[in-house]
């Protein structure tokens, strides 16, 4: 019973704080990945360059800085057409979905997660992101309904006040 109560309070807390299980990345990790890519550009194999770019893309879309997330999205979109295997496509689509999730474009993120799940229906990372998206969309919808209801209440109150002042 205590576990259920704890889960309930955790879900309520996550609802109001917007918590999710998608990791964040600090600036120093992004900087390290950028150095790694710069080193790989100096003559490493294409495979190693690609791996370094994927690590940098991962770090960018998981960054706390909006400009890093946008850079990661741009890098991934540019490299998606050059993906050779379903695994590469899946990984890039997932990272793009994370980037769009972080930037607040939930509908685009949801489309990309669905494409990931078409490739790998049981992929836990994509399922976790899908759940985070659904929770975020639900939360935003509830908040939107609350704001709309408040606005309607204020307008109705204003009309009622104006009518009662008119009658006097």
Description:
This protein is an all-alpha fold and about 170 residues long. It has a single domain (about 20-145), classed as Serine Threonine Protein Phosphatase 5, Tetratricopeptide repeat (Alpha Horseshoe), CATH 1.25.40. About 80% of the residues lie in helices and about 0% in strands. The chain has helices at about 1-15, 25-40, 45-60, 65-80, 85-100, 105-120, 125-165. Helix 3 packs antiparallel against helix 4 and helix 5 (about 85-100) runs antiparallel to helix 6 (about 105-120). The longest helix has about 45 residues, at about 125-165. The N and C termini lie far apart (about 60 Å). The relative contact order is 0.08. The model is unreliable at about 5-20 (pLDDT under 50).
CATH class: Mainly Alpha
Number of helices, counting only DSSP H or I runs of 4 residues or more: 7
Give the class from helix and strand content and strand pairing: mainly alpha
Listing every helix as H and every strand as E from the N terminus to the C terminus, the arrangement reads HHHHHHH
Q: Tell me the CATH topology.
A: Serine Threonine Protein Phosphatase 5, Tetratricopeptide repeat
Whole-Å distance between the termini?
58 Å
Radius of gyration: 22 Å
CATH superfamily: Tetratricopeptide repeat domain
Mean pLDDT: 82
- What are the segments in which pLDDT stays under 50 over at least 5 consecutive residues? 7-18
- Percent of residues in helices comes to over 70%
CATH architecture: Alpha Horseshoe
Morphology call: elongated
Beta content comes to under 5%
Largest beta-sheet characterization: none
């Amino acid at each position: 019973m205590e576990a259920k109560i704890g889960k309930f309070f955790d879900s309520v807390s996550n609802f109001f704080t917007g918590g999710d299980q998608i990791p964040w990345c600090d600036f120093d990790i992004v900087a390290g990945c950028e150095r790694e890519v710069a080193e790989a550009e100096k003559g490493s194999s294409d495979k190693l360059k690609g791996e370094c770019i994927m690590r940098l893309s991962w770090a960018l879309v998981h960054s706390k800085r909006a400009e890093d997330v946008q850079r990661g999205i741009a890098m991934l979109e540019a490299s998606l057409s050059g993906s050779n295997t379903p695994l590469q496509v899946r990984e890039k689509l997932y990272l793009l979905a994370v980037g769009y999730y972080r930037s607040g474009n939930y509908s685009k993120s949801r489309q990309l997660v669905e494409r990931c799940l078409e490739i790998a229906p049981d992929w836990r990372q994509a399922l976790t992101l899908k759940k985070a998206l659904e929770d975020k969309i639900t939360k935003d919808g509830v908040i939107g309904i609350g704001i709309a209801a408040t606005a309607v209440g204020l307008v109705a109150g204003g009309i009622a006040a104006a009518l009662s002042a008119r009658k006097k």
